[in-house]
Amino acid sequence: MSAGVGARRWQRRFSDFGAGLVGIVILVWTLAPLYNMVLVAVQRKEDVFSSNVWPVNPNLDSFRAVFHESYWLLGNYWRQMANSLFIGIAVALLTLAVGSATSFAIGRLRIRMGWLLTNAALVTYVIPMSFLAIPFYAIMRNYGLSGSPWSVIAVEVTFATPYAIFIFQQYGTSIPHELDEAARIDGASPWQIFYKIYLPLMAPALVAIGTYALLLAWNEYLYAFLLLSSDQTITVPVALGKFLNSDEAPWNFLMAASIVYALPPVVIYYAFRRYMSAGLTMGGVKG
Amino acid sequence: MGTPAASRRPTRRGKGGDAFSADALWAFAFVVPYIAVFLAFVVYPVGYGLWLGSSPASYRALFADPIFPRTLINTLLFLILGVNIKLFLALLLSGFFMREKWWVKPLMLVFILPWAVPAIPTFISVHWMLNGQWGLINNVLWDLFRMDGPPWLDTTMLAMSSVVVGYVWKWLPFWTVIFLAGRMAIPRELYEAADVDGATGLTAFRKITFPLMANLYVVCTLLSTIWTLGDFNTVHFISGGGPALTTHVLATLGIRDAFELGDPRMGMAAVICALPLLIPLVILLMRQLSKGEVQL
User: Fold this and answer.
1) pLDDT in tens, A11-63
2) Is residue B7 domain-shared with residue B124, that is, in the same domain?
3) I want to staple B121 with a disulfide (CB 3.0 to 4.6 A). Which of A186, A216, A258, B200 is the partner?
4) Do B128 and A251 touch (CB under 8 A)?
5) Residue A285 in domain
6) Contact B121 A22 (CB under 8 A)
7) Do B31 and B95 sit in the same domain of this protein?
8) Predicted structure pTM score
9) What is the Cα–Cα distance from B38 to B209, expressed in whole angstroms?
10) Do A109 and A226 lie in a common domain?
11) How high is the ipTM of this complex?
């Protein structure tokens, strides 16, 4: 009996040790590429091309260069940040508007063709975004949108809305229909029900999808690269890609610019983590 | 839908026909934006894309391209290895993060960083880490073992493996969180009952966790394969299709043919070559979803 308890204790200790080891592996694995970004960003250009594993003469010169745009490839950096932000906010707001209106019509007004719209959203959801890049490039010219941020916004809203519709519909089922009916009896129009009852009660789902759409747009590379052309209109990831392809390789500037660009989404992630996991768990396992 | 609906209907009819038509107008107003988006930005580009990719000549040109067979193999490798390694690790790690240790929660916060950080900067960072001469990986190898690491991005095998590893790094946290939510939905009593019966560890995993998570796992595999089929960024930024264009996948080859070679028809042909894989995956996914056990 006591031998059994002893064996169990040893087993537990062994398992704790193993878990700690796995934890360390996870930590190193996760942080390595991020550490590399910082390592390169805090060194001088000459020190980047070396066999350093730890930073030599760490300094913030490259961040200063990014802030003051004092290198030719960084010339429009803050302009490009503003472009990214503008596109992100426009995509978030439009996705929320279109998605919530559609899910309200399907779930609340119970329109007859609702299933058709749900299927349309489902079809859009399973089309890989990059597969339509080639036709989109031509189509945006027909629409007179090529070179305009609205072309990128339109594409991203198209691909973000289906997910918004699914989540809103799921979340909407938790709002009792009696509320709508009571409001109707009091003479409220569908618009008033939408605006005064539906949207306020949907707030958590709206925050989750707004964040989702904002980050989707902030991270988007391919469409911004194809549809925007001038240094004044491109977004930051496109600028980083240009940086990478330039013959000179000021890696410290590139990584400093990358870090500044990566910080806002990280902050948003951690601030809205609760909402994100509520929205992005895909319902998990039912029952 | 019992009495309230029944009692409401006569009153509405009593108001006259305009109430109904006003409702229909409202409903129409609410769905018009999405219908417009769907027609202008889904139906039109899909139709236009299929039309672009309908000429047999562009397929002949595509199949004659010496890198095309390699691209097909790469696409399959990327999908099979990338998706399965990632999801299997995510399933294991979700179990690991169920542990009740004080350091598990903080570790989880660090662990989701790759998901939170935008893809492009991290892939650029991975690209630089893999540099044979000045990259962090080979520097570490030298510091620890005094050995010269290989030039990671100069051979097809290593470059493709690097792409897969970079991909797993980026997407592992997301799927781990999904599986973690799946595991949390399993009632604890099941494990407690199993523990009483002497089933722990692997047996509990085989008899409880896996059967209950199987549907979720299948849906995730299908969905992730579909998304990965369209993944442009990972290959484009980690290996850039190199060395000598031998690590392209269909998603990057299509863009390269369309915009670098200036032949959108050939590019669209490359994309359409992914459809024989995409369509069965979508059908399987729809079937699995229609069972209703897992929701998007």
Assistant:
1) 888 888 888 999 999 999 999 999 999 999 999 888 888 888 888 888 898 89
2) no
3) A258
4) yes
5) no
6) no
7) no
8) 0.90
9) 40
10) yes
11) 0.90
